[in-house]
Design brief:
Two copies of one chain form a homodimer. Chain A is of the alpha/beta class. The first copy, chain A, folds into two domains: 169 residues, 3-Layer(aba) Sandwich (Rossmann fold), CATH 3.40.50; 106 residues, 6-phosphogluconate dehydrogenase C-terminal fold, CATH 1.10.3660. In chain A, 49% of the residues lie in helices and 11% in strands. Chain A contains twelve helices and eight strands. An eight-stranded mixed sheet of chain A has the order 3-2-1-4-5-6-7-8, sandwiched between helices. In chain A, helix 6 links the parallel strand 5 and strand 6. In chain A, helix 4 runs parallel beside helix 6 and helix 8 crosses helix 11. The radius of gyration of chain A is 21 Å and the shape is elongated. Chains A and B meet through helix 8, helix 9, helix 10, helix 11 and helix 12 of A and helix 8, helix 9, helix 10, helix 11 and helix 12 of B.
């Protein structure tokens, strides 16, 4: 299925997963699929989700009092949306300082996470992670053991993080089928604003421009496969993406301006009938498309 | 494979296909797959393409002198790109007037085709068509018998077109697995500028904004499945799309402005941290996405 050697986690490891949505649910299911047979505790604000994860045998128990998490477990994987994660980190600052667990998160923006733990003991316990994997559906029902197969996970730990904590994080992602790489949080956020957050916003903006006017519903039957592919991201959870966008706003605003400059260039070539210029700009665009294609991950969706 | 009843074409019909690229090649292959065993003649400017189609047994012969086409065949399907099609129609105006063939084209813009034949005898012989089907690859190697399966084909004939010619066009598309619908050429072009030409341009503009600056190549390994889906259209042929865009420029320029208004609205909500407004705009966008999803064609790609 993928070409990476997986290093299984030792079954003695006590693991807690907070938030059993698409990502947390997929971490839990992926761990089971990797052969991990130690105990996994789960925590979710929605009791129905917790019960579903228990019934499926993916988790063994509720994780109990969140304040105890960092004492009672060796590895705590925080899988809430950005805003909820930041609130959780603020609320449980003392527990995090007192415990000895290695803590991971999976949020799509990393600088606010770094800022939330900067100068606290958590900074040396936590390995902020962003697995570049997703689906436009969200929640436990969308979770799948294969979500991270062949994907890349970016780790943005603070300088001086203990090697055994970093190794644990890397082993977890390897067990889930992902490769890892390290990067500064700000660099990650700038890159993701261009490669992920902006496409998401443009997809929404395009759909909004259709939804915002009367009559476009008559066009629904004529939206072909190109339309569907271009707007696939537009099926994603609005609250989740509003959350991500606001936590990376400065970088995204800059990317919107880069994009708008390119769009203005294409617009003026089109308005002035400059065929050669338009073709040349399209060709530049396609060359980037083709270079991405050569980077095909092990299991492309 | 699809839920439409196919009406096969009579094997006595003499068919010529001009341009054996993605669309013309797929028409020819689809006809063979539908069971049509009459003779199919093909014409292509590239001898290698003609030879490939002959070797594959998809066409039986070269179509010979293009000026004779409209005399020698019952059905002539013109499958050139827009600009080449318009030049062909201008060059062979007399042949078209003299012959009795029913003529179809498959160009993505229809008003320039209508204008090219307006007031000439061709207007009553020709059923302009646009099968809403495509791939980002082009040319004979990309052609496939299934290209039109479950797709919608828009016909934009002039008023007063003879019913038997319209019926022949509808039967052809039915044989190829597509449904047909009728519409005015201008209405078609306005709709396609929004649902197809604009997404194509935005995909190029986004890729251009990355290609145009240094350093973005470092991001290549981090472009996930969302990026790939959003930019799939960016792999399309630049010259082909420059051609289409320039022939529908006024409508596309208007759509760019609609889009830019939506993007400006999202941008200001983001810049001002107006979370509720951002979420609401994203939700409007998603509702359009979901309504398109309900229109799932018979065989969605």
């Amino acid at each position: 299925m993928d070409r990476f050697t997986r290093h299984p986690l030792p079954d003695t490891l006590r693991i807690a997963i907070v938030g059993l949505g698409l990502l947390g649910g997929s971490v839990a299911q992926g761990l089971r699929a990797s052969g991990f047979s130690g105990r996994i505790a789960g925590h979710d604000l929605q009791d129905a989700t917790l019960q579903a994860a228990l019934s499926a045998g993916v988790i063994d128990e509720g994780a109990g009092d969140p304040r105890q998490l960092f004492m009672d477990f060796d590895l705590v994987v925080l899988c809430q949306p950005v805003d909820a994660l930041l609130q959780f980190l603020a609320r449980h600052r003392d527990g995090l300082a007192a415990g000895s667990a290695t803590v991971l998160d999976v949020a799509s923006v990393k600088a606010p996470v770094a800022a939330a733990i900067a100068g606290t003991p958590a900074e040396q316990r936590m390995v902020p992670c962003h697995p570049i994997a997703g689906r436009e559906r969200s929640g436990w029902p969308a979770a799948t053991a294969e979500l991270f197969h062949g994907r890349l996970c970016v780790l943005t730990p603070a300088d001086g993080i203990a090697p055994h904590r970093l190794a644990l994080a890397e082993t977890l992602w390897s067990a889930l089928g992902a490769r890892t790489t390290r990067m500064a949080a700000e660099q990650h956020d700038r890159m993701l604003s261009a490669t992920s957050h902006l496409p998401q916003l443009l997809s929404y903006a395009f759909l909004h421009s259709l939804a915002a006017r009367g009559g476009a519903e008559h066009w629904l039957p004529y939206c072909g496969t190109g339309f569907r592919s271009f707007t696939r991201l537009g099926g994603s959870d609005p609250a989740l993406w509003s959350d991500i966008a606001l936590h990376n706003a400065p970088a995204i605003l800059q990317e919107i301006d880069h994009f708008s400059a390119s769009l203005a260039l294409l617009r003026s070539s089109l308005a002035q009938g400059r065929s050669a210029d338009l073709t040349e700009a399209f060709a530049q665009a396609r060359s980037f498309h083709d270079r991405v294609g050569l980077q095909q991950p092990a299991t492309a969706a």
